[in-house]
Design a protein that fits this description.
Blueprint (H helix, E strand, L loop, with lengths): L4 E5 L4 H13 L4 E6 L19 E5 L5 H10 L4 E4 L6 H6 L1 H25 L8 E7 L18 H6 L23 H20 L3 E6 L1 E3 L8 H10 L4 E4 L5 E6 H14 L5 E4 L4 E3 H15 L11 E4 L14 H7 L7 H14 L1 H9 L1 H10 L3
Parallel strand pairs: 1-2, 1-4, 2-3, 4-5, 5-6, 6-10, 7-9, 8-12
Antiparallel strand pairs: 9-11
Helix pairs in contact: 1-8, 2-4, 4-6, 7-9, 9-11
The structure holds nicotinamide-adenine-dinucleotide and 2'deoxy-thymidine-5'-diphospho-alpha-D-glucose.
């Protein structure tokens, strides 16, 4: 299936900018339209290296504004949509759940409906069209921690991908795991996933849904664990570890996620769900220690000198204990594999944040938001 005009929503955010960059550079024959509201999490500086490319266009818009979605999809004759725009931070969803429902649920619904109206108005209808919805492993809820005697089934896959970190239990999220979201963020994402599948089953819209584990890498907003802690270690600020730091996440380098999105967009089967993950489970406290050691070493401080910054704080309400993705379907059917060992990815990531202190200072000061307000008006 070859798409000519691809709309990428949330392209100015963390994962989105890596997807936009990959598509703009890899598919010069396609027009890549990046659509973003530029909330606090969206930053056009993330895309400065592609903004002058002839096949790139940017539109500032809110996905919950259905008339705008209708206009943009028609104006750019969009035939493929990769939908990443969302409110993405669990802690913010606890204090401001309605914004998450508005963007993640109503925004996705507006985009779906606008795409449906346009595609159904064309003579070829849904031929050559695809609505690709990016979702999260958090919709599946939480897995228990256990220490099985035997080797869990996906271990062989993990070893063959060159990633050898130990699993913290013998259960994994598969594409058939029942939805059981616990936070307002994951409840809103779960709801949007259901709407996307309903548009496939009810209207015949070609859709794909993917559920990915935790991403890390350059350009992540420093409210999330890894960039927040790198910045705090550098400035010798406290590192607020929730609870006892025993929660487990499955980490994937963001460019590996972007490659998976490319593979699935072009070769995934309509109506299917694919899980994306790194078979790379880490306890939060172990990541925090790894970050301290890496930042200290790269800044020429004695390794581990800043471990005393670790501060255990009140746990996040509803904090999911363990996420672990089984991505064997994607690996066996479409041949995707994660490319980086975690230690290598963390080293690259820490170096990037240390080398890009201006970017961090800019997004933490909010200066870029004032700039957008002047350029586009307040929205
Ligand atoms: P992010 O918060 O960094 O970026 C979100 C982007 O969406 C921002 O550019 C923001 O301006 C834009 N946006 C927000 N509300 C909008 C609206 N109403 N209209 C248009 N644009 C809007 O998020 P991220 O970490 O890049 O996540 C991207 C997607 O991937 C999300 O759907 C998220 O649920 C999913 N996801 C993220 C991870 C992860 O670890 N970060 C893992 C799995 C899935
Ligand atoms: O699993 C995929 C999800 O990963 C995505 O869908 C979300 O958009 C993304 O934000 C991420 O969610 P998490 O809640 O897992 O990410 P976060 O970086 O907020 O937290 C990672 C872990 O670290 C989690 O167990 C909470 C803990 N934590 C986080 C912060 C910000 C702390 O202990 N202290 C902190 O200050």
């Amino acid at each position: 299936m070859s798409h000519k005009n691809i709309l990428i929503t949330g392209g100015a955010g963390f994962i989105g900018n890596h997807v936009v960059r990959l598509f703009v550079n890899k598919y010069p024959e396609c027009r890549i339209v990046c659509l973003d509201k530029l909330t606090y999490a969206g930053n056009l500086a993330n895309l400065s290296d592609v903004e002058a490319k002839p096949n790139y266009a940017f539109v500032r818009a809110d996905i919950a504004d259905i008339d705008e979605m209708r206009r943009i999809i028609r104006e750019y004759e969009i035939d493929g949509i990769i939908h990443l725009a969302a409110e993405s931070h669990v802690d913010r969803s606890i204090t401001d759940p309605l914004t998450f429902a508005r963007t993640n649920v109503m925004g996705t619904l507006s985009l779906l409906q606008a795409a449906r109206e346009y595609w159904e108005s064309l003579p070829e209808r849904y031929d050559g069209k695809l609505f690709y919805h990016i979702s999260t492993d958090e919709v599946y809820g939480a897995l228990p921690l256990s220490h099985p005697d035997g080797i869990p089934a996906p271990f062989a896959t993990r070893a063959s991908s060159g990633v050898s970190h130990e699993a913290y239990g013998d259960e994994f999220f598969t594409e058939l795991t029942r939805y059981n979201p616990h936070s307002p963020y994951s409840a809103a994402k779960a709801s949007s996933d259901h709407f996307v599948r309903a548009w496939h089953d009810t209207y015949g819209m070609p859709v794909v849904v993917t559920n990915c584990s935790n991403n890390y890498g350059p350009y992540q907003f420093p409210e999330k664990l890894i960039p927040l802690f790198i910045n705090n270690i550098r400035h010798r600020r406290p590192l607020p570890v929730y609870g006892r730091g025993e929660n487990v996440r499955d980490w994937l380098y963001v460019e590996d996620h972007a490659r998976a999105i490319d593979t699935i967009f072009h070769h995934g089967k309509s109506g299917e769900t694919y899980n994306i993950g790194g078979f790379n489970e880490w306890k939060n406290i172990d990541i925090v220690r790894l970050l301290v050691n890496t930042v200290d070493r790269l800044l020429g401080r004695p390794e581990g000198a800043d471990l005393d910054l670790i501060t255990y704080v009140t746990d996040r309400p509803g904090h999911d204990l363990r996420y672990a993705i089984d991505s064997r379907k994607l690996q066996s059917e479409l041949g995707w594999e994660p490319s980086l060992q975690f230690e290598e990815g963390i080293e690259k990531t820490v170096r990037w944040y240390l080398d890009n202190q201006d970017w961090l200072d800019n997004v933490t000061s909010g200066d870029y938001q004032q700039y957008y307000a002047r350029m586009y008006g307040n929205r």
